[in-house]
Amino acid sequence: MPGTGHTNPGRRRRRAAGDSRPHVAGLFALTDSNIDFFAPYYFQAGTQLGSYTSDEHHLQGLLHHPHQYAPASLVPFSIKPYPFNPFSIPLIETWVKAFGQRMLFIYGENDPWSTNAFEVSRRNDSYRFFTPAGNHGASIFDLPEAEQTLALERLSVWAGVPVNAIAPRASARAAGALPALTLARERPGQGARN
Predict the structure, then answer these.
(1) Distance CA 115, CA 51 (A)
(2) 82-136 pLDDT, tens per residue?
């Protein structure tokens, strides 16, 4: 009751749940527009990559729609005609390690998906980095300075563009100040390409 020092424990629990949910996954993660945006990922997770599952055993009888956080349930069409192929990713990783040239992989140290990080071979001029305390939104600009310098230097050599031209524009892109196509469409001294 207001003014008496008593509080409603149900409201307190709901407020606590409401305050914590955005910090766990964010409510936007399960909106139609976000699910549609990630549909290609969910399709690939359901047919090639695989995905984690939630242990819902302790919630048996409480959930109206159990086992819904699965790639197949998040794709806006049925993926039943496309069975899961457990050999796809191991075959791709084998190819990357043996033949992939000039490849750069950046993983977040705290990203559960990093447990399956591809192995690379430096003899193929390929590199793998982990951003400290990073997640699956990791970027070159989250790497420690020495690794960031190496990654930018390799990209510069591969693209034939000086690092000093790549870094400021890529940094601006990472900050959201430039559209995604800018880096791919412009080269120093050449202006925008159509």
Answers:
(1) 12
(2) 889 999 999 999 999 999 999 999 999 998 776 688 889 888 999 999 999 998 8
What residues have CB less than 8 Å from 143, skipping those under 6 apart?
A: 106, 129, 131, 151
Residue 158 has pLDDT above 90, yes or no: yes
Residue whose entry in the numeric block shows the structure tokens 């399960």: 30
Interval 75-83 mean pLDDT: 81
Same domain flag for 93 and 169: yes
* Range(s) of the domain holding residue 122: 88-192
Are the CB atoms for 117 and 105 separated by under 8 Å? yes
Residue 64 scores a pLDDT above 70: yes
The reply to whether 52 and 94 lie within a common domain is no
Same domain, 31 and 115: no
- Same domain, yes or no: 52 and 140: no
Produce one character per residue of 64-93: b if its CB has 16 or more CB atoms within 10 Å, e if not. eeeeeeebbebbeeebeeeeeeeeeeeeeb
* Count of CA atoms in the C-beta half-sphere (13 A) of 4: 5
Contact 151, 143 (CB under 8 A): yes
d(CA 156, CA 151): 9
Closest CA relative to residue 74, chosen from 136, 30, 112 = 30
Of residues 72 and 145, which shows the higher confidence score? 145
68 shares its domain with 103: no
